[in-house]
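Hi R.,

Here's the chain you asked about this morning:
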Amino acid sequence: MKHSFLDQYSDRDSPIHRLDPRTKLVASLAFILIVVLIPIVNWQAFVIYLSLIVALLIISKLPPLYVLKRSLVIFPFVLMIAIFIPFFKSGEIAGSYNIWLWRVSISYDGLLILANVVSKAWLCILSLILLSSTTKFTELLKGLKRLGMPRMIVLILSFMYRYIFVLVDEVMRMRQARDSRNFGGARLRQLKTIGNMIGTLFIRSYERGERIYAAMLARGFDGEVRSLQRLNFKKADACFGIAFGLALASPAILLLF
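And here is the predicted structure, written out as tokens:
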């Protein structure tokens, strides 16, 4: 069955694709940290950072519609958390509204916090989309390992990404089998069927994990994932790192002058 992989555009050729994964990992982490730490009142900085990330997305030749769809996924989760802040944050009132028996007020400080959360979350997710879409997942894991991430965490991420699609296929086959048997009836019966499916999936996942681990041990697995491909930090990586660092520092430079 067809799945949408995180790194489905990682096989394209662009200057961003050719960078060392460690360079992109460090740059993405630095970008996220700077974006989170800068106050929302410095809106010029956010304009610069948005322009920077858009320029990198254009250079990487990623489809704009794909990037937009991926970035909008985060908004329901962000709004679920932050949508009530303008109503409960004290400060100067921006407006009052009657909702049935209640009268609610929106403050300017609350709206500022909401804008802060939404804008920062969108910039951060754009940087992560750029990272995951221009770097093969195996190279990302290798870069994380070379940067000092514990080996066990890298292994867990590797197997999770490798077999999550297998489990999705398992769920889709179970759903198809359920529908072919005329799934319906009372709500309680439907919930019971879904509960049985979840339990069956858990048991099948556990058994599959045991079989995979036994097969790996039989082939001499010692906890170390090896590959013939090596990471190379090139001159282009150094130039990109310096230019990206200057771009991140440009808002502070502009404020000084």
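One quick note: The chain has ten helices and two strands.

Cheers,
M.
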